[in-house]
Amino acid sequence: MTVPIPMIDKAAAAWVDAPDWIAELAVLADRDGLTGAGKRIGYSPAVVSQVINARYPGDLEKVEERVRGALMGLSVDCPVLGDLSRNQCLDWQKKPYASTSAHRVRMFRACRSGCPHSRVKGGGDAER
Hints:
Strand content: 5-15%
Oligomer: single chain
């Protein structure tokens, strides 16, 4: 029976100088598995594996923000909610408009009207 290689070792082998957030993600994947790590940061197990193995073709900066928010305490000053973890901030930005809740409307508008933390087109950190 083959012993699986720990994710932290895979990260060390794949990254020349693994950033701190990669190590955090690898430790979480070793503890909770790829599925558990993916759920915690809002990505699929496949994405978690690709990131740890330095093979993810997507937006690594966005994954980093989610890891730092969910695992490392990175927070932002939301204009509506105040102190908010970065991963929750990104979750709010993904939500579609829903007139069923005044709070949801305020968040939707704030994320799209110049919030400095927004990655939504027209927001502060958005890629234009």
